[in-house]
Design goal:
single chain; binds tryptophan; Rossmann fold
């Protein structure tokens, strides 16, 4: 009889009515198991088989928790406790590791108390294709197991979703370039992913050390901008960098896996040093920020990083550092994050500069009033050689058309406007009037939600501080895992 049949017979024999068996594709890891049946980690139960001096034992623990082996030894009254090897599991019990069933007649079982908090749990039914779903107390009936308290929360995502980490420097309000580059993606992804949004106030200080008040106030502006564009503070975890000091610890561990020369070759850092007139004297804190940013990403061991295209070199550096760390210590624990870049590679400024930026004084802010928006739209850089509406105009490099491409969803209209412009059959004023209308329609709901947010600043800040606590817990787990790999964990 197969392990699955043994379990099914036992369920029948005991007359358990509310137990179900679920078929799915072959499963070999907890992550895959969780995805296959579409449940979250806290409702998943893993069956671990250990070897002790008294023989083999089975242990049930929740998938969002880790075993405290000393507690477990005490409960079992044993001195030695080791995971059984895959061969031992296969040869003695017929299970494949990764798809161990919740029950085998020859094993004594222990169940962690935290499982009893869940209504229905999901575990392996004995083969790679079948899960069992049942109340935890029914599992106890099946196994005649002993209840004990021998786990703690693990740093693993409790939702079973992949993780996003993304962030902004609090140095002012956010503009439409931020929206197209990253905010839009964040709103779209917050359901599908477990999303963390970092307010990088320490990074902001790295080139604004003498302006702490501005950085502090900008945090509230960012919170309002997030709320305004539709980031849901209950779905996404917003947090403040300075509240998670583990980032500095992780930074230092990572710093051994890159070089001064490599940072000097990072094109974003090069440009920023020039822009900030720091060629003669670059603050060290500023210079190392690509690595500190890698540490931000690793605080939650993120899988995906939605950012503007200008951040791509930072993601590449992070990936390389992760590869080196993992291969040096022969671990797989750190994830190589993927960058996710916005629809617009770059949103140009109203002055024609290829990048919109606060310091360049060429931005349209999410919080701009209708009047300000109108003024800015009517001042955008167009074709400088065009003197009248009947001159043939150039569309390339013309910011009015660049914005039409980005914001005007009526693509047919955009093509029509471009054609007329090229043929000298439309004036700048008409092109801009339509652009204003389109952009105002886009910004009006954001502006309205931002007004609401302004009355909620305290509440939003409180949420960000709560989020920071949560991230701190996760980051501690990552840092400890790194310490273990480096043999500095005592
Ligand atoms: N450097 C980013 C910027 O200037 C902000 C940032 C800091 C960030 N840490 C991060 C972005 C981690 C993504 C991930 O926009």
């Amino acid at each position: 009889m197969s392990n699955l049949e043994v379990l099914q017979n036992r369920v029948k024999e005991l007359g358990l009515k509310e137990v179900s068996f679920v078929k799915h594709g072959a499963v070999f890891t907890v992550e895959e198991g969780v995805r296959a049946v579409n449940i979250s980690f806290e409702d998943g139960v893993s069956t671990l088989i250990f070897k002790t001096e008294k023989g083999f034992v089975g242990v049930h623990r929740r998938d969002d928790r880790k075993i405290l082996s000393n507690e477990l030894k005490k409960l079992m009254g044993v001195k030695s406790l080791n995971m059984a090897t895959p061969e031992e599991v296969k040869n003695n019990f017929g299970f494949t590791v990764g798809a161990v069933g919740v029950y085998h007649p020859s094993l004594k079982y222990y169940m962690d108390e935290s499982l009893l908090e869940r209504k229905v749990i999901n575990g392996g039914a004995g083969d790679e294709f079948t899960d069992i779903q049942l109340a935890p107390k029914d599992l106890l009936t099946i196994t005649r197991g002993t209840i004990g308290k021998f786990t703690a929360p693990s740093e693993r995502s409790v939702s079973g979703k992949k993780r996003i980490l993304t962030g902004d420097r609090p140095t002012g309000k956010m503009h439409v370039g931020h929206y197209m580059g990253t905010l839009k993606n964040r709103v779209a992804l917050q359901d599908e992913y477990e999303q963390f949004i970092l307010i990088a106030n320490i990074h902001a200080l790295s080139d604004n050390a003498d302006n702490p008040q501005m950085v502090k106030e900008s945090i509230l502006e960012l919170l309002c901008d997030y709320y305004a564009v539709g980031i849901d503070f209950d779905k996404s975890t917003v947090y403040i960098q300075s509240e998670v000091p583990e980032v500095h610890e992780i930074f230092m561990y990572l710093a051994n896996f890159t070089s001064v020369q490599q940072i000097m070759h990072n094109p974003t850092i090069k440009t920023e040093i020039k822009q900030n007139n720091m060629e003669e004297s670059t603050p060290l804190g500023f210079f190392v920020y690509p690595i500190h940013q890698a540490a931000d990403i690793l605080c939650v061991n993120a899988d995906l990083v939605p950012v503007g295209k200008d951040q791509a070199p930072m993601i590449e550096d992070t990936r390389e550092i992760v590869r080196k760390f993992n291969s040096t210590y022969k671990v797989k624990y750190l994830h190589q994050p993927e960058g996710l870049y916005g629809v617009a590679t770059n949103v140009p400024g109203i002055d024609g500069n290829s990048k919109m930026g606060k310091s360049l004084n060429n931005a349209i802010y999410l919080s701009d009033s209708e009047e300000v928006l109108r003024k800015k739209v009517f001042s955008v850089y167009t074709d400088p050689n065009r003197k009248s509406a009947t001159d043939k105009g150039t569309v390339e490099g013309n910011i009015a058309f660049a914005y039409h491409d980005l914001f005007n969803e009526d693509k047919q209209q955009v093509e029509e406007l471009k054609r007329r412009y090229r043929e000298g059959r439309i004036g700048d004023v008409e092109v801009k009037e339509i652009l204003f209308k389109v952009m105002n329609e886009f910004l009006t709901p954001i502006r309205e939600r931002r007004k609401v947010a302004e009355g909620m600043k305290e509440e939003l800040l409180r949420k960000a501080l709560e989020g920071s606590k949560k991230v701190r817990g996760i980051a501690r787990g990552v840092a400890d895992q790194m310490k273990e790999a480096m043999l500095i964990k005592y």
